[in-house]
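Bug #2210: token dump truncated for UDP-glucose 6-dehydrogenase?
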Amino acid sequence: MVKICCIGAGYVGGPTMAVIALKCPKIEVAVVDISVSRIAAWNGDQLPIYEPGLEDVVTQCRGRNLFFSTDIEKHVAEADIVFVSVNTPTKTQGLGAGKAADLTYWESAARMIANVSNSNKIVVEKSTVPVKTAEAIEKILTHNSREIKYQILSNPEFLAEGTAIQDLFNPDRVLIGGRETPEGQKAIQALKDVYAHWVPEDRIITTNLWSAELSKLAANAFLAQRISSVNAMSALCEATGADVTQVSHAIGKDTRIGPRFLNSSVGFGGSCFQKDILNLVYICECNGLTEVANYWKQVIKVNDYQKNRFVNRIVSSMFNTVSGKKIAILGFAFKKDTGDTRETPAIDVCKGLLGDKAKLSIYDPQVTEDQIQRDLSMKKFDWDHPIHLQPMSPPASKQVNVVWDAYQAAKDAHGVCILTEWDEFKTLDYQKIFDNMRKPAYIFDGRNILDVEKLREIGFIVYSIGKPLDPWHKDTLAVA
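Reproduced locally. Full output below:
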């Protein structure tokens, strides 16, 4: 029986290995992690991450050919294929601080693999890593190998949170990069054989190592670029009276552009977009490509501008101060159908409002109070370290109240901010919300999911990104 081990039981490693176990019943899959609490959750009734369909997959396979364990060395030693899906945070100090990826955890994993292995192995990069990481890992393994042979493959993940299981069941492509040697091609074929259990062969793309590594960064950079582009247009729409939804629909009908990732919002979030672009910027700078680096920097600058603009719109609408005012925050996850808060725009929006001494009442159906308080107290990039290395849970902020009901969040509030596009927010009783709010009652739709005209008929003063402004807003300053 082929044995697979995945180091890292997070958002990528857990779901990916669960689906491999489901689709390949003759392969034994072990997911290992140093976090005792995380592994306990994977083995329990409450999985450590929320993803539609994941629980059903895990339940079918767990204990049969899918195992979660903290006995890392045992499972790595026994494995034929080792996936490495560890944290690759952005460096906060030293060379490349603020841009370069910190490969401390990757290097540690590679050294451990070299120390415990007693048979030849295929080592697969599953984390998003900088170009040429495979070369560094290869050097570590081969210089500590004791005659054991390793092949390094890059197999970046392209799943989207919220639809991860369906993305894994029916991927638009699986990318495998390896050495262009007989041994490298044999390793590529071994991994292709795993995915071929359920993925059509024409969707399994093979490249050299460097192309696979760069393709992941490029894919996320292109997607983030589209979001920043439409968000830049949203600011112009507000200034001119155009409607960004209509503009997006019109340009999305162009088959050369297409309709996806053209929804204007308060900004993009998630674990990959900003981190990967910063990584791309650093690689460009290291290769003397200053103009290319500056181009990609602008994608992040526009994203930051959009979040700042949203906060400024809220403050300026409320007579230039939110000090002591209650603001309801509906949604804290970076997108619907996930509990993931990494780089969520809600963090920057909340911090901006807290900086003006607002009182926040936050509701998200999947994010815990502890996570929200942690996110609002952490320094930038701390979130990407293993949880045991993150700051301990801080004392609850007196300015932040986390509730488990949208109506409770909005009760006696001066304004409501929609920061995640959860479906339930589209069907709330906004007349009831209006009746229980302070007046004038404001709604700031950061996801463009609400019927603006109906809200105005109720009596709300409404701001929806990229939509024609209320007369109330036309005289207020909202530049970042």
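Output looks complete on our side. The chain is about 40% helix and 15% strand. Marking as cannot-reproduce; reopen if the truncation happens again.
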